[in-house]
From TrEMBL:
Pathway annotation: Glycolipid biosynthesis; glycosylphosphatidylinositol-anchor biosynthesis
Membership in a protein family: Belongs to the PIGG/PIGN/PIGO family. PIGG subfamily.
UniProt-recorded name of the protein: Phosphatidylinositol glycan anchor biosynthesis class G
Keywords (A to Z) from UniProt: Endoplasmic reticulum, Glycoprotein, GPI-anchor biosynthesis, Membrane, Transferase, Transmembrane, Transmembrane helix
GO process annotations (BP): GPI anchor biosynthetic process
Keyword Transmembrane: yes
GO molecular function terms noted in the UniProt entry: CP2 mannose-ethanolamine phosphotransferase activity
Main location: endoplasmic reticulum
Domain GPI ethanolamine phosphate transferase 2 C-terminal span(s) in chain numbering: 421-741
CDD domains: GPI_EPT_2 (cd16024)
GO cellular component: endoplasmic reticulum membrane
Length: 759
């Protein structure tokens, strides 16, 4: 082969076909682990045996343009390169133009053997607005033109009498329905792999044939053998037979023998009992049959019997490779540890991994149970008042017995006591209804994450008008639920900020303005100006709230101090709500609206009226926060982290705000409920003086218990097969959640100390 043009398109090549690739897996043939996610943030030079190193050692010249991760992995391997940063996902134009601008000149040159192009535009569009974005169509057409240009250039070179060329087209990963990747859903791990060369005599269509579904690591030995290079020693891939089917039977058997020998050596180095493996024995049987076939072949035998015998040997090699790669235990320590723990430990490990993957079901169950218990308490209270039966049993959830002026939501809202009763009775039922609807909005179950949910339907182009209406209604509801706690200036800023949120979503193509002309492929802006506009209002509201809190230091009146503290905290909370509204995807804004609605009705008709103490109120807030973490579409899988929010309103990649915004968006549910707890406890006159302290202690305890549990669990199961795929991601989530909770509890403590110093 004279030229190898390798085109990698991050994201997806077709709207419903995706594949997960990593540069390390593609070049080494080894399976990436969880640690590669961390290393990918600051990729060091790859020292492991790999295809790029083998190519350079063979004296071949390589040119690379695209994702600069390649440049960091292979710093001295390219004769020419131009890298572009993959972090700034808001850019989906210049990041590709920087690659394409080199094409015309490079394709005319004859001083290179391998050209690697890694385009990032599709990936960035997916992170911004998902796979159904109106930007996907034009970007795919752009990629089509680039592929056509490369193919035409290679054909013209072949007409000049050069060796045959190979064009490889693939994606380095797939894309979920929300635009993320790194998980195990079908859209994230499957994508087409296209190889084009004049050496192929026929066209093979494997799109709908699962029998021909190949792993990403299979590309490494295939390209190595096609280029006449050694296979990377740590590769666990087997070559793709269809690529070499035009070769003679003798050549095919030789290539399979090389591949099998490499995999057997790898098995031998990693497994002390390798000689007992079925694949190892099958390979030696195939080698003996191959030797017998070669002896007959060299003797000049060309009969049909020899041909059938060769095909049988080829089949033996393929079966041996399959058994060696997929039938062997490459992780020895898992079996050893499980044998030491015994049957109980084995059951524990399986149960714990399943619990982590389906943890959201636990929180949904607890939330439903809580709502039913509250409903029973409300029924007992109002029916007891109606009958005058003072000796009836107390509430299911024991309430505070503190004395003080009673609070009546009915009087505050201008309603009759009868209306208050029915609203209180309806509150748990309305909460259950909202939670059930939110469960259908985002699919978080690992086993069924690939199945479509209501969020997927909303994000499809056919429902953009309905999504636009839903977003508008959600933003109006958010304003109505939050504004009554704010000053006039903050109310105006909040209204303009929420209007800016809609403008931002329209700018990135998620929703429509009523007057906007709807074309098939609109060209919306990147929304940077709109997002920066909203940041100004967020900072303004936060500044107003913090100003009130700082004025507490010079206030002498306890009444005025209490009023300023309550208003200041609520305005800080309102600023956070506006920021979260900006960061949430368009289809998730109803989740934020439901969160605020539940907080409002629970505060007005449940927590105040039934006089739950600080500990009980804290537990309820914590449970709601955990449930809303999953209602957002989060899971304990790293692949559900939406990194695109880290670049909202930024014109270039800046690490600190990117990390802050991503963290805030991911933990928005727990954080909003924790902040609402602080605001609620601070605003209650009839609460005990130590209410904030009790709430802080209870909140810290609730967060510490699972954190300690998972630390112990991961330590005990550190050799488990799922340690990198299940347990380590969960531990990372717990660590970040604990860090956020620590900051919240410190703020609780500060406000409690400030309160205790007042007369």
């Amino acid at each position: 082969m004279r030229y190898l043009a390798y085109l990698s398109v991050s994201g997806h090549l077709h709207s419903d076909s995706f594949f997960f690739y990593s540069q390390t897996a593609l070049t080494t043939g080894s399976i990436p682990g969880f640690i590669d996610v961390v290393m990918n943030l600051n990729s060091p030079a790859l020292l492991e045996d790999n295809l790029i190193w083998q190519t350079k050692s063979a004296g071949k010249q390589i040119i690379f343009y695209g994702d600069d991760t390649w440049v960091r992995l292979f710093p001295k391997h390219f004769m020419e390169h131009d890298g572009t940063t993959y972090f700034f996902v808001s850019d989906y134009t210049e990041v590709d133009n920087n690659v394409t601008r080199h094409l015309d000149g490079t394709l005319k040159r004859d001083d290179w053997d391998i050209l690697i192009l890694h385009y990032l535009g599709l990936d960035h569009i997916g992170h911004i607005s998902g796979p159904h974005s109106s930007l996907i169509g034009p970007k795919l057409m752009e990629m089509d033109d680039i592929i056509k240009k490369i193919h035409a250039s290679l054909i013209s070179k072949e007409s000049e009498g050069t060796l045959p060329n190979l064009l490889v087209l693939c994606g380095d990963h797939g894309m979920s329905e929300t635009g993320s990747h790194g998980g195990s859903s079908e859209p994230e791990i499957n994508t087409p792999l296209v190889l084009i060369s004049p050496t192929f005599r026929r066209k093979c269509d494997f799109t709908h044939n699962k029998h021909f579904c190949k792993s990403q690591v299979d590309l490494t030995p295939t390209l190595a053998l096609g280029l006449g290079l050694p296979i990377s020693k740590n590769s666990v891939g087997d070559l793709i037979p269809a690529v070499f089917e035009e070769l003679s039977l003798r050549e095919q058997l030789r290539l399979l023998q090389i591949n099998g020998h490499q995999v057997s050596r790898l098995l031998q180095d990693s497994n002390p009992t390798f000689h007992k493996e079925d694949g190892y024995e099958q390979f030696h049987v195939a080698e003996k049959s191959h030797g017998s076939w070669m002896k007959l072949y060299l003797d000049g035998n060309r009969s049909e019997v020899l041909s059938n015998m060769g095909k049988k040997v080829l089949k033996q090699y393929l079966e041996a490779l399959k058994a060696n790669i997929w039938g062997s235990d490459w992780t020895l320590s898992e079996l050893d540890v499980l044998l030491l723990i015994g049957t109980v430990g084995h059951t524990l490990s399986l149960g714990s991994s399943s619990f982590i993957e389906e943890e959201h079901q636990t929180w949904y169950f607890l939330l439903n149970t809580l709502c039913l218990a509250i409903f029973q308490d409300v029924c007992r209270k109002y029916f007891r008042e109606q009958r005058g039966e003072e000796e009836v049993e107390g509430p299911l959830l024991p309430s505070s017995t503190e004395k003080g002026p009673s609070f009546s939501p009915a009087l505050e809202l201008g309603m009759s006591l009868g209306s208050e009763k029915w609203l209180a009775l309806a509150t748990p039922l309305l909460t259950l209804t909202c939670c059930r609807l939110l469960r259908s909005l985002n699919q978080t179950r690992v086993q069924w994450a690939h199945l479509p949910d209501f969020g997927h339907q909303l994000n499809s182009g056919d429902h953009k008008a309905f999504l636009s209406l839903l977003v508008a209604v959600s933003l109006v509801l958010i304003f109505l639920l939050v504004q009554h706690h704010c000053s006039l200036v903050s109310k105006i800023a909040l209204a303009l900020g929420l209007l800016g949120v809609y403008s931002y979503r329209a700018a990135v193509g998620n929703v429509l303005f009523p007057w906007q002309h709807r074309s098939r492929y609109p060209s919306p802006s990147k929304g940077t100006v709109e997002a920066q506009f909203i940041y100004v209002f967020v900072l303004g509201i936060l500044f107003t709230g913090l100003k009130d809190l700082l004025r507490l230091q010079v206030m002498s009146s306890a009444v005025e101090s209490r009023r300023l503290k309550s208003r200041g905290l609520w305005e800080v909370y309102s600023g956070m709500v506006l920021l979260v509204a900006l960061l949430f995807r368009a289809h998730n804004l109803p989740t934020l609206a439901c969160c605020l609605l539940i907080q409002t009705i629970m505060a007005q008709f449940i927590w105040k009226k039934l006089h739950y103490d600080a500990a009980q109120t804290t537990i309820m807030h914590y449970w709601f926060g955990q449930a809303f973490f999953y209602f957002q579409g989060n899971s304990n899988n790293i692949g559900t982290v939406d990194i695109s929010v880290g670049f909202v309103g930024l014109e270039s990649y800046v690490e600190a705000p990117a990390v802050f915004l991503t963290t805030l968006s991911t933990y928005a549910g727990p954080l909003l409920w924790a902040c609402h707890l602080l605001c609620f406890l601070s605003s209650q006159r009839d609460r005990a003086v130590m209410g904030l302290g009790h709430g802080s202690y209870c909140f810290a305890l609730l967060r510490s218990i699972p954190a300690v549990f998972y630390i112990v669990l991961v330590t005990l199961l550190r050799y488990h097969l799922f340690i990198w795929s299940v347990f380590s991601p969960k531990l990372l989530y717990e660590a970040m959640h604990t860090l956020i909770t620590t900051a919240v509890c410190l703020f609780f403590t500060f406000m409690d100390q400030e309160r205790s110093t007042r007369p």
